[in-house]
Amino acid sequence: MPATLSDPPAEAVPAARQRLARLHDTLRSRICLLDYPPGLKLSETALAAEFGVSRTPLRRVLARLEDEGLVRAVQGVGTLVTDLDLAELAQVYRLRKDLALLQVALDPVAPTSELVARVTALGLRAQALKSAPSAREFMLLDRDMFLTLLDTTANAPLQQMSERLYFRTARIWLQQVTASRIDLMQEIEIYVREVADILAALRLGDLDAVGHLRRGHISLSFARLEK
Description:
CATH class of the largest domain: Mainly Alpha
Strand order of the largest sheet: 1-3-2
CATH topology of the largest domain: Four Helix Bundle (Hemerythrin (Met), subunit A)
Mean pLDDT: 91
Structural class: mainly alpha
CATH superfamily of the largest domain: GntR ligand-binding domain-like
Helix content: 55-70%
Number of helices: 9
Largest sheet: 3 strands, antiparallel
Number of domains: 2
């Protein structure tokens, strides 16, 4: 069908989608890093002004975040950042454990030298945290590791589900560290060892080992959260 005068240029559509994706990722990151703590009311006016967008695309992004369980729209109040209770958290963690194995079983992608290099760089970041511990930097490291290892599967629905659940639970760990309920240095030491083991498995091309290492890490992380 030929374009009409009201149609946007073809090249504008991908650009607009990219802007919305960046806006979504930025807001999601702020929620998961507790820049937007649970219960905070998000101002559409302030966000639209900050990012230079109209209310319509902003509301589409907020609707996506609501679908992901990170915010909720309350009639007569506005959009609030959500929180998770322990029961729901336990259910999500159990599912994430199984998804860690599925990621290396469904449409697996053999580790490339580029992937190994990315994980090597992440390992160096983990080592650096030992001398300069930071809960925020730890969270950013874990996020980047998670997103990097998603490249071990070409199954798009699995990637989307895994990503959604990861970001749904990520901030809980940071909340506990901030409240001094979790030993940050102990977590860093554990993480350094895990990254080293994953890197060794990737260099051998053993994705099955990668999946089991990730599953074990998720399981033990939740056990420490419960404790």
